[in-house]
């Protein structure tokens, strides 16, 4: 029984590894959901209680407003907020001028999708479907072409150069290069921009700025933090230039993240690890069959050589097969 189990596990090693990978991923999802629920549920309950108290205080201080009227107003305000239209005092912000629309198209085509501004009309929604249907595959192709060129220039050539120059192990050199590249990318596209956003966004702390940079460059795009949404005219005299700079930063940052991921994906150690979950290719020919074919090819070659010799000499000496010793020597 043990021998059969060992033989079965050896024959189906890739399938077993793949099944364990699925189980691990499901457990990772469940554990993550449990942790998020344990952390965020108390804050949600506290916020709901605060809103309930604030609503009761408002109705008590404004007896001319009924609960039904307030309900209608709040529902309408929340509906407008979901479409990116605020009822607060900073109503000078426009979501659909050209620069804001350019920011929206970049978030759509890169699948970041903050959700802070969405099409309001049916025509806009229909065009968004058509535009994304064509634009997202084109964007993926465009990014893959750029990333392939950059990986060749930034990753493959330096690793090959130092491998020849220092005679260092290529796998170890690739790991060192990928680590340094990840550190440089995190410094210039996450930590330094987070510090810049900290100085520009007065309502953000450093953790919130860092959170925005990471969520944006990984195309998660939750939309709870969007730069420039709380700025007044005095705080930001050039809102269009600010949003245009954010658009350029997000595109460049996304390219750099993809370069780092592709560099890590090509690591020899990671390739070897991935093979554990793939079904191994069955060899079409075993070694014995290969030797037989090589033996036959040598016999055919010997026959051809003797035939050429007979034609050149003009003789009709009968053909004598090559001896086994001759064939074995050639083998």
UniProtKB/TrEMBL annotation:
Gene Ontology terms: biological process: stabilization of membrane potential
Domain of life: Eukaryota
Sequence intervals crossing the membrane: 18-39, 98-117, 129-151, 172-197, 209-228, 240-261
Catalyzed reactions: Cs(+)(in) = Cs(+)(out); L-glutamate(out) = L-glutamate(in); NH4(+)(in) = NH4(+)(out); K(+)(in) = K(+)(out)
Main localization category: membrane
Coiled coil: none
One GO CC term on file: apical plasma membrane
Keywords: Cell membrane, Cell projection, Cytoplasmic vesicle, Disulfide bond, Endosome, Glycoprotein, Ion channel, Ion transport, Isopeptide bond, Membrane, Potassium, Potassium channel, Potassium transport, Synapse, Transmembrane, Transmembrane helix, Transport, Ubl conjugation
Potassium channel domain sequence ranges: 90-151, 186-264
Compartments, record wording: Apical cell membrane; Cell membrane; Cell projection, Dendrite; Cytoplasmic vesicle
Membrane-topology annotation of the record: Multi-pass membrane protein
Pfam family of the protein (one): Ion_trans_2
Entry-listed glycosylation sites: 90
Region (Disordered): 310-331
A GO molecular function held by the record: outward rectifier potassium channel activity
Gene3D superfamilies: 1.10.287.70
Database matches in SUPFAM superfamilies: Voltage-gated potassium channels (SSF81324)
Protein family membership: Belongs to the two pore domain potassium channel (TC 1.A.1.8) family.
Subunit comment: Homodimer; disulfide-linked. Heterodimer with KCNK2; disulfide-linked. In astrocytes, forms mostly heterodimeric potassium channels with KCNK2, with only a minor proportion of functional channels containing homodimeric KCNK1. Interacts with KCNK3 and KCNK9, forming functional heterodimeric channels. Interacts with GNG4. Identified in a complex with PSD and ARF6; interacts only with PSD that is bound to ARF6. Interacts with UBE2I.
PANTHER family, alphabetized: POTASSIUM CHANNEL SUBFAMILY K MEMBER 1 (PTHR11003:SF59), POTASSIUM CHANNEL, SUBFAMILY K (PTHR11003)
Protein name (database record): Potassium channel subfamily K member
Organism: Xiphophorus maculatus
Lineage, uppermost ranks: Eukaryota, Metazoa, Chordata, Craniata, Vertebrata
